[in-house]
Structure formats: structure tokens, C-alpha cells
Amino acid sequence: MIELYAITDHPGPPLPDVGPLNAVATEDLAAVCAPTSDGEVSPDALWRHEDVVEALMEDRDLLPVRYGTRLEDESAAVRAVAERYDELAVALDRVRGAVELSLRVLVADEPTQATRQEPASGAEYLRAKTRRGVERETAVRILHEPLSILARASLQASPRSPSELLRAAYLVDRPTVESFVGLVARLQSVHPGLRLLCTGPWPPYSFAER
Amino acid sequence: MTDKVLHAPRELDSFAGDLPRLENALSRRIGADPENVQRGLAQLVLTVVELLRQLMERQALRRVDSGTLSEEQVERLGRTFMELDKRMEELREEFGLDEEDLNLNLGPLGNLL
User: Fold this and answer.
1) A98-207 has CATH 3.30.420.40 classification
2) Residues of chain B contacting residue A105, judged by C-beta atoms under 8 Å apart
3) Which of A33, A36, A63, A145 has the most neighbouring CB atoms within 10 Å?
4) Residue-level pLDDT at B22
């Protein structure tokens, strides 16, 4: 069995020294893979996968392959890439020269789950829901929209918890990352009532397929 | 991991709620023992229920906004949704599911909720 890490250009720079990697070429694309002993699925293995993809990302453009993508052997990898060649080539062009940055925004003074009080009445429950809806729309307008201008592409995901206002991913040109982070810092100082967490640069997981 | 933080608020703890998710998400993929199957089914059913609950709640919020409901009606509506919300939370807890688990990735269509 082999495990896939990324689809990259072929030929590319030498593979980083982070394990027994091999680049299997199909025309001008290559699938970077490594032999794997079947079985182990764990957070540690996931982070190792992520380390490999990030090491690759340092000096090349790539489409990251999700952790746990395994194929029989290298000829299966060639077939898999050949079958979706056009789609993969277009997708790789789309992320070329860019990385993914992630942004999450929470309300700063939100009580934790343990100390949260139940709304005093049904009407208050509905009012709180409406307020949160308005706050989320506002966060999109004052944060997501200006940041999207600096990004090549952006995506919003639905908030995961009641106190989360915004969860978004941005495809940002490598030279623009610094000014993007600068804008995040400025937006944070203008809006002390919010908590902005920006992470990256990540492989463009959110923009690898459309 | 910390080298990935490009900008963080002074108080980072509030973002830590997601950390246990990784372990859970991975462990659930392994093996199809009866408990996992039951949980998978519960997850699917609760996802549909949650979708309906959210749609109804949004509809209710619109009606409240339009101002055509009496105070008593608004209160009753609010109570109902509050109870539903609480009940969903209890069910989620019972099956060890997070809010995020009650969502489906519909591929090119994005997420269900």
C-alpha cells in the first residue's frame, strides 16, 4: 500500500528529506507518495502526514491530498491521476503561488458553557438568537469582506459554536500573506469586543477542489 | 502548532474547545462495532432533525421580526425552540456528538447547515 500526500508539478524540485517519498509522474503532474504499512490511524499519524505536505509546500505548489488516502501501488496512483488529469491540472493552477490562511472569530465576553445562564424567557431566547444573527452578518461585513479583497479566493464555513461569529478560509498569494496578517491585526485593534485567531500558512486544503 | 498562529488574541483558551475533536473524529472512523453503527445512525437522524429545527427557527425569527405576533405568541414560540434546543443538546451528549457532527458535507454544494 502507498499513501498519497500531494499532487504537484512534474518535474519539481528535489523531494524534502522527511521520509521515503517518491514522485510518480503522469504527464506534467506528479503524485507524491510513500509506502505505508496498513492500519494505524491516529492524530500523530495525521500530524506526520501534515508535516510531509507542509515540507513539500515550502518550495513548490501543490494540491494537498487528504490524510488517509491510500492506493494499492504506484501504478494505481498513475491511473488515479490520469483519470482526473484535466481537473487536477486546473485545480493546481488555481492555487499556484498561494497558501491558505484560516480565520476564526469569537465574541470576547461570552460566558462559557458552564456559567451560561438559560434565557429568562422564550422571548429573550428569540431575541438572543436574532442578536447573534445580526452579529454574524456584521462580522462578515467588517472582517470577511475587507480580508477577501486581499485574497485570491475565500470561503466561509458555518460557525461551530454559539459564540463563534465567523469561520473562514482565504487563498492568499505568498507575497501578500504579511499584509493580510497586518490587516487582521488592525481589524482586531479596531474591534476589541471580538477575538480574532488567524492561522497558517496551510496547504490549500479548502481550495483544492471545487 | 504554535508557529502556525499568525495573529492571536491575548486570551487563546476560548479557541481550545476544538482540540478533543480530532481524537474523536479519527477514532470513530475505525472499526464498525455495533456501538459505532448505532452512533452513526443517531448522527444521521439527528442531522435531519437539526436541519428541520434550524429551518423552523429561522422561519419563527422572521415572523417575530415582522411584528405580526402577539407578545404571548412570541413567548410561546421562544419557549418551544428553547426546549427543542435543550433536548437536542441532551441527545447529542447521549451519543457523544458535537454540533459540528450534525452537518453533512455535500461536496460541491457545500455544507448542509
Assistant:
1) no
2) none
3) A33
4) 65
The DSSP 8-state label assigned to residue A144 in this structure reads I
Q: In this structure, is residue B109 part of a structural domain? A: no
Best mutation target, A150, A163, A199, A210, to test chain B (most B CBs within 10 A): A199
The boundaries of the domain holding residue B75 are 33-97
Q: Are A126 and B60 in contact (CB under 8 A)?
A: yes
Taking only the tens place, the pLDDT of each residue in A128-159 is 999 999 999 999 999 999 999 999 999 998 88
B8: in domain:
no
Pairing relationship of beta strands A2-9 and A22-26 according to DSSP bridges: unpaired
Query: In this complex, do B4 and A199 lie within 8 Å of one another by their Cβ atoms?
Result: yes
Q: Do B14 and A130 touch (CB under 8 A)?
A: no
Q: Which residues of A touch B22 (CB under 8 A)?
A: 43, 46
Does a structural domain hold residue B49? yes
- Is the Cβ pair A188, B76 closer than 8 Å? no
Residue spans of the domains in chain A: they are 2-95, 98-207
Packing angle, helices B71-94 and B34-66, rounded to 10? 170
Mean predicted lDDT score pLDDT of chain B: 81
